[in-house]
Amino acid sequence: MRCYETALPDVKVIEPKLFADSRGFFMEIWNASRYSEIGITANFVQDNLSFSTKGILRGLHYQQPYPQGKLVYVLQGEVFDVAVDVRYGSPTLGQWVGVTLSAQNKRQLYIPEGFAHGFCVLSETALFAYKCTEFYSPHTEHGICWNDPDLGILWPIDQPTLSEKDKLYPRLKDIPWERLAKFEDELGEL
User: Fold this and answer.
1) Are 140 and 64 in contact (CB under 8 A)?
2) What is the pLDDT of residue 189?
3) Residue range of the domain that includes 114
4) Cα–Cα distance between 5 and 22 in angstroms, integer?
5) pTM above 0.70, yes or no
């Protein structure tokens, strides 16, 4: 297994080890022992699967309280996946990282708690899977508009199809700090 750091602390790209032969392939999606060796000690409590068609953009979503860390990957198709730091007081607040995930490259993206998440579908269809560290909590779900000019996300799509809920999300600067996760350094201080 290979792990690559990104521009955002704790957001990681993982390439699981692939065992392939003439019959196909095998790979571990999650192994707590192996992932803890690369600094991911998450306790996942829920697995989700979404199906979307080309041009769909889902996000940017986060929960507060009850933030969710996520390990995301694509079973079929290709997506552009984005993580945005939404931790109040973080030195990287409002910064983002984007990664292309596909069934072909078999990459995973680990997004820790305190980050908003979204993706857009680049292929005709996509099966997108993700493990979560917290149960879905609709009354604590929040979001940021996908094209917030202050974030400057370079989406590979100009006119996405959005849910009605995603169309109404505000810009990050318009979200009260109480609705953001709190950043704490290694000493536990803001």
Assistant:
1) yes
2) 52
3) 2-180
4) 33
5) yes
Residue with tokens 């579908």: 121
Cβ contacts of 102 within 8 Å, gap of 6 or more? 74, 77, 78, 79, 123
| pLDDT band at residue 187 under the 50/70/90 scheme | very low
Residue 74: CATH number of its domain: 2.60.120.10
- Catalytic residue annotation: 61, 130
pLDDT digits (tens, 9 = 90+) for 124-140: 999 999 999 999 999 99
Backbone φ, ψ for residue 57 (5° rounding): -125, 125
How many helices and strands (H and E) does the chain possess? 2, 15
97: left (phi over 0), alpha (psi -120 to 50) or beta: beta
